[in-house]
Amino acid sequence: MRQLMGILAAAGLALPAAAAAGELGMTMFGHKVEIVKQDDELALTVDGRRLLANAYLMIEEMAVVGNVPVAIGSSSNGGNACPGDRFVLSFSPGAVPRLDGQPDDCVGLEVENKGDHLLFSSQPIPGRAGVQWSWTAPDGFKPLADVAFTPNAATGWEALRDHKAAHPAELFSNAAVAGEIYALLGADKEQYERSITGVGSGSFDGSVFTGMACTPHMCTEEEAILVADIDSRAVYLAWKPFNKKIIVRPPVKQWPDKARAALKDWAAKWKG
In sequence order, which residues have a C-beta less than 8 Å from that of residue 190 and are 6 or more positions away? Predict the structure, then answer.
């Protein structure tokens, strides 16, 4: 951090709050960096060169990686199906500033500065391993080994009473709950995971959690619902495959009243 602050101070550079909010104009390490409105999108330019354009662009932080100053930012087309893609703008001494972009895989990446490289990584989720990328000035983005998703074996149903879960995919991290979910799914595991880990949310009503989500880019076409009852230690699942009827596990007659009401509300969009 002291090294970074020293470099920033020597360059007379401070990252303004506006950099994370849209348009930007400043000098970075002797180069004019701007985020400006062009037509219906924002464009990132360096010394007048247009390097990137999208609906949303922001520079979020500065860092020093292997003695090379960099600006780390994100770019988004404005939709909510995928997180913004990360990019790195680097200022290697004696070289033209270079922009490297995260591979477009619809995965939100967190970043850590490891000193000699940046580590970009995503959390592993059910049905999808966490991805990892390293970034260095010589090599740009390079893939690292994936990190497999595994439920936390130390957790059980009582852990849900903290009411912290805000998305149905979070319940898969609880080994006891995940065991009940997978027992119901059987061979349909991958199909259900694809939807329940997508865009969605969940909340508690007393001891009952209800969460809904949809497959990215396919909301209203592929969706899933998950109800978990802490008191009865039971889960109730349903999903709507593409161009097919809703699948329910266990049968609807086994769903308690609160869960059945949630199912009815969720399924109403496909009636009529």
Answer: 127
Contact 51, 95 (CB under 8 A): no
Provide the CA 224 distance to its chain's centre, in angstroms: 18
User: Residue 19: helix, strand or coil by DSSP?
Assistant: helix
In terms of Cα–Cα distance, which of 89, 84, 126 is closest to 105?
Answer: 84
Rounded (to 5) percent helix, strand, coil in the chain: 25, 40, 35
Contact 91, 69 (CB under 8 A): yes
- CA 84 remoteness from chain centre: 8
DSSP category for residue 258: H
Q: pLDDT tens across 198-221, in order?
A: 999 999 999 999 999 999 889 999
Helix (H, G, I), strand (E, B) or coil at 259: helix
pTM (2 d.p.): 0.72
Measured torsion, CA atoms of residues 130, 172, 160, 181, in degrees rounded to the nearest 10:
180
Convert the pLDDT of each residue in 77-135 to its tens digit: 876 667 889 999 999 999 999 999 987 777 789 999 999 999 999 989 898 899 999 99
Tokens 């464009």, residue located? 43
Q: Which domains does the chain have, with CATH numbers?
A: 2-147 (no CATH), 157-270 (3.40.1420.10)
- 230 DSSP 8-state letter: T
Residue with tokens 């951090």: 1
